[in-house]
Amino acid sequence: MLFESTQISEFQAVVLCGYGNRMYPLTEDSNLPKGLLPVANHPMIYYSLQWLEKANINDVLIATYPDAKNKISAYVHEGNIHLNKVYETSMKIQVVEVPENCGSAEALRVLKPLIKMDFIVFSCDLITDVSPNVLINSFRVQNRTMCALLYDSGSLETGDRKREDVEYIGIHDKTATLLFMESKADIGEDDLDIRCSLINKFQAVHLHSQLRDAHLYLFKRWVLELVAKNKNIVSVKSDLVPLLLEAQHRKLVYNREGIEALQDENSQDIFAKARLLSLSGNRSPSKVSCTAVCHLQGFTARANTVWSYSEINRTLAKNTPSTVPQATEISPKTQVGSDSLIGESTRIDERCSVKRSVIGNHVKIGKNCKISNSVIMDYVSIEDGVKLDNCVVCQSAKILTKSELKDCEVSGKYVVDKETRAKGEHLVKNIDE
């Protein structure tokens, strides 16, 4: 593969760690920030940093809201024992505070003084095994303006996918050019409009409805100047990406946004045009060019809802070798399925059953408990006779004797009274408690 052995990166990375509005109550103040929620017993952002490390990215900016900054900083600078020595010695990581509830493109405006080169935007809830080189090669060999990762969510996210979540994505197959992305929610009951200028330029458009946007993008540095100039660009996905896609085939948009001047002012590669012509014959390159990388065979998913978060945990637990840490105590009379993960310094008493679940670190589980299809975070206490099915129990919660919960989320530090029976409920700690 091209550029497989590259050691010096020409990219910076921006990892977006927002609040996670669709993950209530997991992201309540009593629990952890979204970026630190455990996924298969690693903080969610661990997977982002691992991917960027493989990409040989040396400069990483983590954008997060004020209440999460200190917690994420503590993990990044103190918890890097989870990563190898290359990470410890070569990756420069800055955690930058952005205004609460600001859009992803607004966060880029805050970070603009720190971004000096082409950059990668990575959502912290994305977990993927796609090789970074696939995206990087696609982006730089053809000198693209933007490269976006797309994936087929398959069964992993299907149960959480509403009709409005369907995306219509147009791709020119011959050149892998990304032409448009429209969500069903934006179109409503109207027909999908495809401009004549797009058809005239690209002739054939392959329309996809099963693909999803992974929220992983590579951008030219000049795109940041466009974001800074146009204050109407609030969201990367909803505003910036559609604008760039439209600028590929609409001269009106290209001229209106002053893109040619932005490109000239921020040109970093004087050989770009020559390289493009050598790769693509005598055809003149497009002034704005966006490409799509479709990852269909491996693992890609976003833990951006409670459903997908739970499913990703279960999938990774199933595909991770089952080992019991030395400091963990499991009674010989307890059954733990090979499709489950058990964290460090956890104690599980006798006559318990654990199936398709992830049990965190420093968890205490009493006698005669049955836990299935659930995620139990660190420092949770579960007393005797408790039954949990398809539940997420957040950090430091307590579930008292003989409680039975199904399809429930228990917020951090919440205490479930003994013999509670609940189904499909959010059990949230009162702010005054």
TrEMBL record:
Its main location: cytoplasm. Residues 329-419 form the EIF2B subunit epsilon/gamma LbH domain. Residues 16-144 form the Nucleotidyl transferase domain. Keywords: Cytoplasm, Initiation factor, Protein biosynthesis. It holds the Pfam family NTP_transferase. One of its GO terms (molecular function) is guanyl-nucleotide exchange factor activity. It is found in: Cytoplasm, Cytosol. CDD domains: LbH_eIF2B_gamma_C. The keyword Cytoplasm applies. It comes from the Eukaryota. One of its GO terms (cellular component) is cytosol. The keyword Cell wall biogenesis/degradation does not apply. GO terms for biological process: cytoplasmic translational initiation. Component of the translation initiation factor 2B (eIF2B) complex which is a heterodecamer of two sets of five different subunits: alpha, beta, gamma, delta and epsilon. Subunits alpha, beta and delta comprise a regulatory subcomplex and subunits epsilon and gamma comprise a catalytic subcomplex. Within the complex, the hexameric regulatory complex resides at the center, with the two heterodimeric catalytic subcomplexes bound on opposite sides. Belongs to the eIF-2B gamma/epsilon subunits family. Acts as a component of the translation initiation factor 2B (eIF2B) complex, which catalyzes the exchange of GDP for GTP on the eukaryotic initiation factor 2 (eIF2) complex gamma subunit. Its guanine nucleotide exchange factor activity is repressed when bound to eIF2 complex phosphorylated on the alpha subunit, thereby limiting the amount of methionyl-initiator methionine tRNA available to the ribosome and consequently global translation is repressed. This is Translation initiation factor eIF2B subunit gamma.
